[in-house]
Amino acid sequence: MATASDYMMEHFWSAKPEGTAWVTNYGECWQSLHGANDLEPCVQPVVPQEFTVRLNFEFDKYRIDNIVNDGELARLDDYIANVNATQAREQISLTGHTDAKGSEAYNYQLGLRRAQTVQEYMISRGVPAGDIVSVESRGEMDMLPGVDIYSVEQRRVKILAQ
Question: Residue 94 belongs to what H/E stretch?
Answer without folding.
Answer: strand 92-97
